[in-house]
Amino acid sequence: MKRLFCSVLLVSASLLVNAEIVNVEGICYNLNVGGSEAVVTENPDKYKGALSVPESVLYNGVRFAVTDMDDFAFSDCKELTFVSLPKSLSRIGNAVFRNCSGLKSVSIPKTVTSIGNYAFRGCRSLTSITIPEGVTRIGTAAFCYCDKLVSVSIPNSVTSLGVWAFSDCYGLESVDLGNGVTSIGFEAFYGCGLKSITIPNNVTTLGEEVFRDCRNLVSASIGTGITCISRWAFTNCVNLKSVFIPESVTEIGFCAFGGCKNMTSITIPKSITKIGSSAFSCCSLKDIYCYASVPPVSSYDEYLKYKSITLHVPAESIWFYKADKVWKKFKKIKAIE
Questions:
Q1: Which residues of the chain have pLDDT under 50?
Q2: Which residues on adjacent β-strands are paired with residue 196?
């Protein structure tokens, strides 16, 4: 992370070359000398209250179009409550609203196509956000620690959610993932208050620990684009009871469902060939329905209650399971009816 912030600072500094910083009606801008563009920048006195950023600004008789915002432009403005952004903007840069703890609402224009790294990190009063159709990327930790954010709708134009994109949004109860999303980053929803999640079929990459510690999560449906349920993907989702795993999945990663204390039953499709160690560690499983005709490669789990779990497998495969060095530890192996 330190390397990321250093590079961001260098980019911001480069924007100051051949520019003049002015304050027009309470908003600071970098004006291109001899040009016609203005870039919103930091205010040494910090922005407060409600702000409406115009599409253009008049200075010394010259009209400048407001086309961009410097990284960190509103960062740490704790008394800022509302911001309306102009239609001339195409992106929300890195850490623009970082730690604006009093920010309750932001009006994002439809012209914005990218939300940068740490853009809204720590906006603890933000209760809702409308991400416009046209945004293609939501950056690293973009909404991390937005405690009061309740629901989010990701438009179909978004293709990737960055690392920690919504992590530790404790109040986030629902997320509607658009059909354009193909990649969900590491810990993207770590520690959120989600009650259910449906992963669209277009998602092909699911980051490690993506839903870890989502303690209110009750049900999850995994899309057909996923081939591997990543390591620690649902670890400590203590209220998780229902999971749909499609036949596109061939591997369940290490500790993927570890600590899901309310999970009493799991259905493993016939496509599964490998189950990582501790995948179901400390669960309350009573029944496992495994449709794989050949026992998946697995490791012994000292925290799995083999004696009390009924393993249901295809009738023609019972003896294969009873002969396997790990699967034979289940004392009750029955044919799937």
A1: 1-17
A2: 219
